[in-house]
Design brief:
two-stranded antiparallel ribbon, 76% helix
Length: 291
């Protein structure tokens, strides 16, 4: 049975390897090929190789640039807020002396992340409703005027960021808490005996030692923020006046509503390059600071 022991690990990973190949590797190469082809399903013209024309069209497309700026605006609002709040929550949970309290808070933070984006978006649509929403009801009970949470150009994106913060901060906080729990307690005790306050212990001990986990959380949140789609599409359909139409939504509408598959693939690759650039910058900046 020695041959079975040698083969068993490969048998276990085969289903995942097949799924990964079919749904990740194969679409990756198909999208790469489509990016250089003019393929429009509503046109009678056959697919034709056009080189970099799709990329040039995307860079000159005002709607693509608009959706790109909307996405960057979301990233700038969501990522720093999520990481900062997650770190604060992780530090707070780490400071809890009773284990049951820490586990309770950790479970409460993790529950929203278990919800499907459709469920979370429908729930928060009701919260933000201008007529009978929960938030406007609370404002009226305090004698304050109602706010057009998701129907105003100025408030729509911050409102979506707030919903995303509630939905995603728990996972980041738990990852950071796991990083903090790996720090030897003797370091904090020694710093306390030397007279270091809470802020100094955090900046001199906790933050440097948790930086690898912080880098991971920052990069993962940045990648996820650049791919924002479900929240904006389900809550506002990209409105009002395209103020919340993300680049992923524009790619989806171009490829699957307008049936311009080649052009949509080219925009997807431009988004991929932008995400890769931001991730590399974050990685090298934090690595340099750590050094």
């Amino acid at each position: 049975m020695d041959w079975l022991r040698r083969v068993a690990p490969y048998l276990f990973i085969t289903p995942y390897a097949l799924a990964f190949t079919c749904f990740i590797i194969l679409p990756f190469f198909v999208a790469f090929g489509l990016a250089f082809v003019k393929l429009e399903l509503t046109s009678q013209q056959p697919a034709a190789f056009v080189g970099f024309d799709n990329f040039r069209e995307a860079l000159g497309d005002p709607y693509f640039r608009k959706s790109l700026w909307v996405t960057v605006y979301f990233v700038v609002l969501a990522v720093p807020t999520t990481v900062a709040l997650a770190m604060a929550l992780a530090v707070g949970m780490q400071a809890m002396t009773q284990r049951w309290a820490r586990n309770t808070v950790r479970a409460m933070l993790f529950v929203p992340g278990m919800l499907n984006v459709a469920v979370a978006a429908i729930l928060w649509q009701w919260f933000f409703n201008g007529e009978f929403g929960l938030f406007n009801h609370l404002l009226e009970s305090l004698g304050l005027p109602r706010l057009p949470w998701i129907s105003s150009r100025a408030l729509a994106m911050p409102s979506i960021v707030f919903m995303t913060l509630w939905w995603t901060v728990g996972g980041s906080a738990i990852l950071l808490l796991a990083g903090l729990q790996q720090i030897p307690g003797e370091l904090w005790e020694a710093a306390s005996l030397d007279g270091a306050g809470a802020w100094k212990r955090f900046t001199q001990i906790s933050l440097p030692m948790v930086r690898p986990v912080l880098l991971f959380v920052l990069v993962i949140n940045t990648i996820g923020a650049f791919q924002v789609f479900g929240q904006t599409y389900l809550m506002t359909r990209g409105g009002p006046e395209l103020a919340t139409r993300s680049v992923v939504q524009y790619i989806y509408e171009t490829a699957f509503n307008n049936y311009r598959l080649g052009y949509g693939a080219a925009m997807s690759w431009l988004l991929f390059m932008l995400i890769a650039a931001f991730s590399l910058v974050q990685f090298f900046v934090l690595r340099k600071v750590d050094a």
